[in-house]
Amino acid sequence: MSADLNAPAHPTDAPEAPNRASVPTPREPDSPAALAAPAAVAHASDRGARIAAVAIALAWHVAIALPAVLSARAEFAAPAVVLGAWILVAVTGAVAGVRLLQGSPLPPWPLAGLLLVVDAAVFAAAGERQLFTAANWVWGTLGWFFVLAVWGRRVVGLIALLSTHALIALVAVLVHGPDPADVARYVMYVYGTFSLPVAVFVGSTVIVGLARERAAVSAAGHAMAAERDAAERGLRERRDRLALVSSAAGRVLGDLAGGQADPDDPEVQRRCMLAAARLRRLIAESDDVPDPLLHELRAAADLAERNGLPIDLVTIGTPPPLPVEVRRRLADPLTGTLADARGWARLTVVSGPDEVVVSLVTPDREGPESTGPPPGEHDDGPVQYLYERDGNIRWAQTRWRR
Asked: Which UniProt keywords are given for this protein, alphabetically ordered (predicted)?
């Protein structure tokens, strides 16, 4: 649809303000779109912490535990059990780590139960001589795999697993008849087993929570700024449009007041009706109603009826939410044609989820077009305008497709 669709024939009529990009509707603070940014930031932070936890567990298991196991394999009470348990945990940990990074972790408690069984078996198979050495790899490694098993859950679960691990170690120490030095070493090992995994687990949870909170505060601030900017742009746009429309109406009234226009002249009447329709639709655009497009079309139809034009308004379906720009392009051409109608008019609105069609039928009459483009099909962005006349009727249609 070209810019002169509604341009009045009278040279003193100013055209309505050009269509501008519609003002974006601000998002509600609790809408899914507004919540998406904090969730994305929290997910990114959590993923970084997951990568760090998986890397620590596997690197510790391979770089520290494996060399110690291989160097002391001849000194174990049951070397095959210790080495087999190491392989089992390596494979299980790799699978658990990959699944955790993919967002589909393994069931936590079956995995934790398997790790505790391995824990007890290795303590029994390590023997007294390797009880407090690096070769007894469950001391330093198993806690990190507990972290992978219960990631994303409450820290109470991790503490319960580490406490069970400490009890298993205590039983092994007591079985071998500990002396005070063994008890001191046991306390030191338990402290190390608890402190680092719990610190990483709790720290990652706190960091993710802080990231989510800060992202939410930032998103809320941006939403408020966008809402304020949208309101200011909308206000400026309405002021500009009102100034132009009022100017056109003011010239018509000035001509009438100065005796330069005859109220009985059909062209003067058409100018008055077109100016009034534009003012009325401009007012209707800001009304808070369920169906803004139908509301604006009803306002134009009501004005036509008040000027003595019988008009039928038929609606089928409910229009989807449409930007102001699209509503203007759907209504403006028909408003101009309606202002030029004589005798009667029929306005039909057919709506669907992805399409809105507005049609206007009026009797044809002799003479050139006083509004709108020549007959034919015209495109204006997402809105298609079709206008035909055959000597009996004039038919105008605007169509929007998603």
From this structure: Membrane, Transmembrane, Transmembrane helix
Residue 361, number of CB atoms within 10 A of its CB: 18
Contact 88, 116 (CB under 8 A): no
The Cα-based distances of 308 to 207, 280, 302, 303, 305 in angstroms read 70, 17, 10, 9, 5
**What pLDDT does residue 121 have?**
95
Residue 177 in contact with residue 196, Cβ under 8 Å? Answer: no
- Contact residues for 30 (Cβ-Cβ < 8 A; gap 6+): none
- Is residue 85 pLDDT above 60, yes or no? yes
Q: Are residues 252 and 9 in contact, defined by beta-carbon separation less than 8 angstroms?
A: no
Report the first-to-last Cα separation within the chain, whole angstroms.
17
Q: pLDDT, tens digit, for every residue of 101-160?
A: 998 999 999 999 999 999 999 999 998 889 899 899 999 899 999 999 999 889 999 999
**373, 5 Cβ separation under 8 angstroms:** yes
A 10 A CB-CB count for 211 gives: 18
List the beta bridge partners of residue 350: 316, 357
> Rounded to an integer, what distance in angstroms lies between the CA atom of residue 8 and that of residue 105?
68
User: Residue 10 has what DSSP assignment?
Assistant: S
What are the structural domains, with CATH classification, of the chain? Answer: 34-220 (no CATH), 290-401 (3.30.565.10)
Separation between Cα atoms, residue 259 and residue 211, nearest integer Å:
71
Confidence of residue 236 (pLDDT cuts 50, 70, 90): confident
Kindly state the tokens that stand for 27: 């998002």
C-beta of residue 44 within 8 angstroms of C-beta of residue 34 = no
